[in-house]
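FW: tagging you since you asked about this chain on Friday. Here's the raw sequence from the shared folder, copied in full. Didn't touch anything.
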Amino acid sequence: MLGYTIRRILQMVPVVIGATFIIYALTFLMPGDPVAALTGSRPLPESTVAQIRLAYHLDDPFLVQYGNYMLGLVQGNFGIDFFGRPVLGLILERLPVTFALAMTAWALKMVIGLAIGVYGGLRNGQAGDHFALVFTVIFLGIPGFVIALGAQTVFGVQLGWVDPAGIRAGWPLAFILPALVMAIEASAGLARLTRTSLVDVLRAEYLRTARAKGLSPRRVIWGHALRNAMIPVVTYLGLSLAGMLGGAVIIEAIFNIPGIGGLMVAAINNKEGTVVVGIATMLVLVYLLFNLFVDLLYGIIDPRVRI
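HL: got it, structure written out here
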């Protein structure tokens, strides 16, 4: 198991390098001058602009800037913004709000997706199965921001059931609507996977043998079918938890939630590339850590993957 763990960690290194290189390139090769965006309509003296560009290495070649960033990243330094604040501190300050939203959405997604997937899988070819398929097709096809804007308008503005934006009501009231929007969109894929996995398992030979031995339908389904059908589902759920953090960025901007999504939008508007790259890099690292955890857990469950 130790050798398998070391191999998985080493495999993460090129992924981190490649992902951060792409993020850094897309951010810092975009047109526009970040110093001009910082000063606005009142330009600073040329000497001050030169000092800012020198302090943040804005005139260095791209590869030099990227190399300096990676050197700092290895040391746990995500850089500083134009006001001298550590980017890592800004992220950690906002991360609890994003994490609360993501965890709430993940829990709702698990309940909705598993319920619809199991319901459809146990009724293969019947009305319940058709309902599950229609649900997944609809919400896999509709963009998340469309669902978010529609829910915000109907439930927040027209009906007034919840605040349309902000987190003044606190958790869970302020997080229910945005988390539900994220969960409905994401639960479609979970429902489809659960339904397909369960249908495949129900056709397996060992379940026919279990029925032939006289086991009750309840024991066959709950004791054998669902247990084996949940193996790929558990892997998907583990990876999707990290994906929820990334998906929360867009929802936070729509619902004006003060998480890392709002920080990302402000950084993009101000052309603060260091903050944008820092947030994106943090999300990549979180996703890789969750991926590593799921792989190690799967290696414990199924020793064959360690070979």
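FW: The two ends are 10 Å apart (CA to CA).
HL: agreed, and The mean pLDDT is 81.
FW: great, closing this out.
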